[in-house]
């Protein structure tokens, strides 16, 4: 395999260099700091600043975006073995052997993430100008957006697990502020709380993993840890891998911690686009890609391949949430489940060891999903916050720009050839195709591709095509330029974005592990460990996936776009018409074979969602509560019972001392 | 001291201490509870002086003086608190003071 | 004359100077309060005496710096008394604050000297009574800064409750003296006296609102249980003395180690443990904590939580990590069990509370459990981490209770979580501060609470206490629930109409300064804790 050789030659170097003074990278710390300062200024003086606040916020993010680009270009100009740059900003905890600095790691991986976060962040800031216009908490919204971008940048740039964790927590915190933004609605506060708590569950995994890494290697800095992952005992390494996976499932909304994301749609739409499509939810993927040498070491040790577990978590999540997405009627919830499903793809790739494919899909998904969310926001804006897709339809005339850009987004996510999503999805599936033991994952992936094409086409057809079902009295209109401009930019990205991962017109870089620019670029930063055994012809596999996507779109077309001229068709076709009228009995078939089981499944999932995962989350809550009630009963308020507790404690201590003596000696 | 083995002093001190401890737990009158605590302190004094004698140094006796002084200070503060509570609640029953709970 | 000089016991003045200075200021404040209209005369008399003594010392003893400082202090207090002779409360508060600052200055001086070598002359009478080492000095700093910030907060609160009486400041200073002394006790006699001095002051301060039944009840409960537990502690001291023949902590430790695990040894250690566990509020000796914290005047609660915990843990370190370290096998499992049930119990019980002060009381219990991890590490990293934790906790606790006292002041009653709804709209600055303290208590990165947790967890891991650290992580996740609940109420929920009509609270300048200081400490220690962490680490290495 040429591709694999290429990755092996330029593979993870494990060499880190210090940043040279005076260069763009040396100022990389300004990238998160400037939006953070802007957020602080807006929060403190927001009332006095008023409308200018948006300008400040956008300037701050614009600065970060420009500087990120400069950093990226400098990185690209550097020789390949000097692209992992460590930048120590300040000493943080300089005690003895334990040294954690405010260190940043600028490498190819964080470089591309920087570009994504800052530029998509900038577009969403601009979009919010129009979307949030007239909201009385305008200033605070921009402050929170800035804060979020700053936190995400800390996460991406973090040079050690600890700094990354700081960003991780700050991202959770600021997203919690943003989801709960319109806090007059009780549901938002609950959703915000749920997001926060589920994330905390994941954080426990992350924290314990961090402790284990520290106790194994005595350091948390990536530059120390990543080249030395071989030194970790195999069992510990597996534990760390699984714990990091738990952390990642929390942030990236994978099984079993995905419940918070659909609820989090309660927040303003630009927030959904920024947080729940392009940035925060990808943090889990980023984390596992960042720790790829660890997963490679686990893979080689062959004790228990955590990577495969990651891939399975991703595949099952993708399948499950794609099925749920087919049965949703809320335009944002469809996108939310779709996001989880696409994140599942990324987990598949990163778990199977082709991190570049995961990052590739992460980037293209960042474009087209942000686009779709912003388009959804534009539609909601036009229809007075309507979210039911059955009350839309025929909006293509009223909203031409939104329509056209949504079409691009839908084609991209549906995996239609020559759009960005097509290439990145192929790469993900090729990873499954080349890994022995992942055959079933490939099959699931192909099915999910069909489902994705189906539900996204359904989404698109119901909103923009067909007859208008918009209630009387609402006159949809196109959104202001500040909202449509980001749509257009993202649409361009959704078309052309694919070419960062493949070489145009090159068969070799297409249906194989070898990739275009992005794959070579990421090679020094991640340790690929993908298999190299085909179990199926690549070209044929690719064509099957295309066919699956086409099937999905066609099904949606048949089901949701009726033929218009019914009478003429009936006369001409006779019995065939009957069949066609009943959509070849597909409705019934669908009803019986897909919808009913699907609904059952969705209902089952809803029950599982409520009883199972919510149940666990709430159960932790109620369990704690019940325990507390017992403890509460002991707290009688009577001083004598407190004295009795002291006596009891004394007896307990005596018993422990006695027991310790008997056992310990 | 001669004639009575040292163990007996310690035993007496332990008995007094336990009496005081049980008294705090079972009596409801605040004043009696307080007296029981004083009893506990004095049983410690007995133990301290016995040990002082046993070891032949003065540390224990010094400490027992301090205990006496501290007990006096505690009485001052404690009785003031109890009197004020009685003025507010009209009772010296410890179980009546249960506004703060759960 | 020579004979007389020999007969007068040599006392390690330098070692005890912080306590002496603080105690002197306390007496002075008390004297000026009782002198009433003749306070200038009384002040002049004190100034005359001190200056005379100082001059005599300069002439006779050839010492300049110390007497000169004494004279300066004497004249300063005279000047202040003259200026504020009609406003005794201002005078008391100022003198107390200056006294605390002077004490911290003395501590700083001691730190410099201790880093070079000893302070305590071995021949002096109290030589083995006090230990002037890093642990003592660091704890003194914690106690004094907590007391310093409590002065303006208490001023605001007491004025508002119309219970601003003269004894507040001397009582605060005396209990600070007790805490300082407890932190530096090297002898069990000293431990007992210090515990009593700090407790007696706090008993009275808890019941400072004499007409308020809850305040009285909290004082009464604190007093009765405190006296009960010190009796048990005292019995432990007596038994230790009985087994070892010495009350000196280090000697007793050596003798106990020789005695090995005899029943009496274990009983002695157990009873000592009860006494300390009561003061640090480890489960199941915690029952008094929520009641007392809820009922006591709010700034007093903050001071009590911060200072007592710091001092008692310092004594805990000295006795267990210092003297009883060879007996580690016997007491580590015991305290381990207490720490686990403390961390879980405190966090779980806090979840169901509706009264904010009470909730913070339970959270204080959980925090004592986290600090105990440092103890259980039985190494220098653990001691250093714990000292840092106690400092951070002091700042968070004084700050959080300070903001609460402000809100209480506005409402004129105890604060329920429901009362905090929509606080953001009315009082943005206190909301941000309280939110900051709560986030820090919850251990969110970027705040001091996170760094502090990290410090003790790290020490725990170094000592292979992995299970303990995992329990701590779980406990802090549970704890996040209730800190979050308050924050949600403050920022996200709507305020009810009856609250919305109330006027925003106004802070006095002193209280503003105090709260700003704690908030700044929480942020600075969260972002750039390096210097202070190093300081705490070097304090841990200076253990005598």
Distance between the termini of chain A: 63 Å
Q: Determine the strand fraction of chain A and express it as a percent band.
A: under 5%
Helix content of chain A: over 70%
Percent of residues of chain C in helical segments? over 70%
- Assign an overall shape of chain C: globular
How many angstroms does the end-to-end distance of chain C come to? 36 Å
What is the chain-wise order of helices and strands of chain C?
HHHHHHHHHHHHHHHHHHHHHHH
In the predicted model, the low-confidence regions of chain A spanning at least 5 consecutive residues are 1-10, 580-587
In round numbers, the mean pLDDT of chain A is 80
Q: Tally the helices of chain C: what do you get?
A: 23
Decide which structural class fits the backbone of chain A: mainly alpha
How many domains comprise the coordinates of chain C? 1
In one word, what is the shape of chain A? globular
Number of self-contained structural domains of chain A: 3
- Classify the oligomer: heterotrimer
- Strand tally of chain A: 3
Largest interface between protein chains, with number of residues from each side = A-C, 64 and 70 residues
Largest sheet of chain A: 3 strands, mixed
Highlighted features:
heterotrimer; A: 665 residues; mainly alpha; 3 domains; three-stranded mixed β-sheet; 26 helices; 70% helix; disordered N terminus; C: 544 residues; globular
Descriptive report:
The complex is a heterotrimer of chains A (665), B (102) and C (544). Helix content of chain A is 70%, strand content 3%. Chain A contains 26 helices and 3 strands. Chain A starts with a helix and ends with a helix. In chain A, 58% of the residues are buried. Chain B is an all-alpha fold. Chain B has one domain: Orthogonal Bundle (Helix Hairpins), CATH 1.10.287.3510. In chain B, 76% of the residues lie in helices and 0% in strands. In chain B, helix 2 (30-55) runs antiparallel to helix 3. Chain C is mainly α and 544 residues long. Chain C has one domain (128-541). In chain C, helix 8 runs antiparallel to helix 9 and helix 9 (213-244) packs across helix 10 (249-259). Chain C is globular, with a radius of gyration of 23 Å. Chain A binds chain B through residues 632, 635-640, 643-644, 647, and chain B through 21, 24-26, 28, 33, 94-95, 97-102.
